Amino acid sequence: MHPLRAEGAKMLDSGLSVRRQHSNVGEEEDGDDESKTRKGISVASRITQQITRIGLAGQCLAVCLFFLFVSLYLHTRNGVCVSPLPSFTRMSFFGIDGLDSEFGSLGVPWCRSKDGRTVEWTKKDLLKGLEEFIPIYETRPIKNNQHGMGFDHSFGLWFIARWLKPDLMIESGAFKGHSTWVLRQAMLDAPIISLSPRHPAKYLAKGPAYVDGNCTYYANKDFVDFGNLDWKRVLKEHGITDPSRVLVFFDDHQNELKRLKQALNAGFHHLVFEDNYDTGTGDHYSFRQMCDQFYVRGGGHSCFRDSDEARLRLKRKKFWEKAVDIDELCGPGEAWWGVRGEMRDDFSHKNKKISYPEHFQNSRFVESVLDVYWELPPVAGPSLTHQTRYDPARAPDPIVEDGRYGLFQRIGLARLETSVFNGYTQMVYVQVSPPPESS
């Protein structure tokens, strides 16, 4: 491991990289943590009341004693910090600014929906779903799904399918069959259609794989790309009369704008994209890249080496594997949109250069058809999962936030290998409909 990255991981383990936001969800379960916060405030009040009664030397001593007291209770079991102080204050006090104090300052890309709608489920629903899914995940047939989905995205796909209860599920890209297995756990009886150049059964000779008995495979010599299949005929063969009752899952590393248009042409409304790569990363054009625009906080990136953004990116690159600095973000002509100004597709075999006006128009098209846009949050904060891959400054708040080790342990996440948390790439659920007729 790179020494700087190892240093970052060590700092995470020490519990000093904490982004604590108070939430009503599960708060009653972590009352022991919160009671320490209340006790600290009480002590501070008593110290304050004595300040006016003592001289300058006594005031200095009181302040020193206060911060000493704070430092003594900054950690709880397993080294997870539950300090009531803001993360920036804690980082500055300990001289370790740089892990999470810029959270959100680099911008979290998002796509605006037509009517401002969002998903129906809440954080409480996600927590309840995690408790149910963890024991299911522990029975997975493919324990080491390297180059495939980890825990975060497996849970997200299962949760979305379980919530929507579609009549038919379609996946484009199956690999060894793990995503097929996840869909099956969500809907035990619904039919599945799987499109993949290689049949999952081909992997059985080398190790674990999953083949579903109620799945129609378009693979090997029968493979047909999603955009070339006669979906009207296929849906009729499966007895599906309403395409809005179908869930489509894309894990095929293709241009997501292309897939969006193909899904709209087929009449599908509910889509999940597994690899919604951040700006400057990935091997294809993604929603994140399209919607990373100037109206987003931190969007419209600077390619100037002396800019504040360049400084922040360089610092974060030391700790997070998928953080990108200015050299990686900016392509020829200082193009930062897409993947270095390219509309990558076909497993990076096609790298069409796109101008910024074209990129901007792509984002406008996306928002003209978008009813709902929801990115799956990380299941837990990086000091809990020990992941070092994605940059927390470019991700939504985790479901189980840093500092909530009691909750992390009680719902069963602590039982999982830490390696299963290192595959997060901002998976997104979108609900779409054709754009309104132009007047």
Describe the structure.
It is a single chain. With 439 residues, the protein is α/β, with parallel strands linked by helices. The chain contains 15 helices and nine strands. The strands form two sheets. The protein has a seven-stranded mixed sheet with strand order 3-2-1-4-5-9-8, with helices on both faces. The chain has a two-stranded antiparallel ribbon with strand order 6-7. Strand 4 (246-250), helix 9 and strand 5 form a beta-alpha-beta unit. Helix 2 packs antiparallel against helix 3 and helix 5 crosses helix 6 (151-164). The longest helix has 21 residues, at 31-51. The protein is globular. It starts with a helix and ends in a 7-residue tail after the last strand. The model is unreliable at 2-53 and 70-103 (pLDDT under 50).
Features:
15 helices; single chain; 9 strands; membrane; alpha/beta; seven-stranded mixed beta sheet; transmembrane; 439 residues; transmembrane helix
Q: Biggest sheet: strands side by side, in what order?
A: 3-2-1-4-5-9-8
The Rg value, from CA coordinates, equals: 24 Å
Helix content: 25-40%
The end-to-end span amounts to 58 Å
H/E topology pattern: HHHHHHEHEEHEHEHHHEEHEHHE
Q: Which sheet architecture does the biggest sheet show?
A: 7 strands, mixed
Assess the beta-strand content as a share of residues.
5-15%
Q: How many β-strand stretches?
A: 9
Shape: globular
Structural class: alpha/beta
Low-pLDDT windows of residues: 2-53, 70-103
The number of helical runs is 15
Q: What is the mean pLDDT?
A: 81
GO cellular component, one term: endomembrane system
Keywords: Membrane, Transmembrane, Transmembrane helix
